[in-house]
Specification:
mainly beta, seven-stranded mixed sheet, globular
C-alpha cells in the first residue's frame, strides 16, 4: 500500500514562507515524477508544480513562478515545496501526487490526469 504523507502546512501571514514536505512509502520512488496540486474552497483542484524522477526538470504554474520551488531528495523518498512571498490567494489544501515517469511527462501532469497516487493533503492558510 503506497502512501504519500504531506506535512508542513499551517497559518502564515502574507509575505511569509512555508515549506511543505511529502514523504512517499514506495520503494521505487525514482520511478515517479512528483507533483504538488492545491484546492481552494469552492474551486477545483489545480496544478502547482512538478519535478522529474531525477530532479533535473521542474515545471510550475504561472501564478507561483519565482515564488515557489519544488525539489526532491531521492535518498529520503521525499519531495518538498518551498513557498515564499505567500499571498492570500495561495490559501488552499495542498496535495502531493506521483505519476509513473515511464508514462507521463512532467508537463502533462498539469492536467491532473494519469496520477497514480495522491496524498491526503495539508492545509495552508495565508492571512492578510
Amino acid at each position: 500500500q503506497v502512501q504519500l504523507v504531506e506535512s508542513g502546512g499551517g497559518l502564515v501571514q502574507a509575505g511569509g514562507s512555508l515549506r511543505l514536505s511529502c514523504a512517499a512509502s514506495m520503494r521505487t520512488f525514482t520511478m515517479y515524477h512528483m507533483g504538488w496540486y492545491r484546492q481552494a474552497p469552492g474551486k477545483e483542484r489545480e496544478f502547482v508544480a512538478a519535478i522529474s524522477w531525477n530532479g533535473t526538470d521542474t515545471y510550475y504554474t504561472d501564478s507561483v513562478k519565482g515564488r515557489f520551488t519544488i525539489s526532491r531528495d531521492n535518498a529520503k523518498n521525499t519531495v518538498y515545496l518551498q513557498m515564499n512571498s505567500l499571498k492570500p490567494e495561495d490559501t488552499a489544501v495542498y496535495y502531493c501526487a506521483a505519476a509513473d515517469s515511464r508514462l507521463v511527462r512532467i508537463t502533462t501532469m498539469a492536467a491532473g490526469r494519469d496520477i497514480m497516487y495522491w496524498g491526503q493533503g495539508t492545509q495552508v492558510f495565508v492571512s492578510t
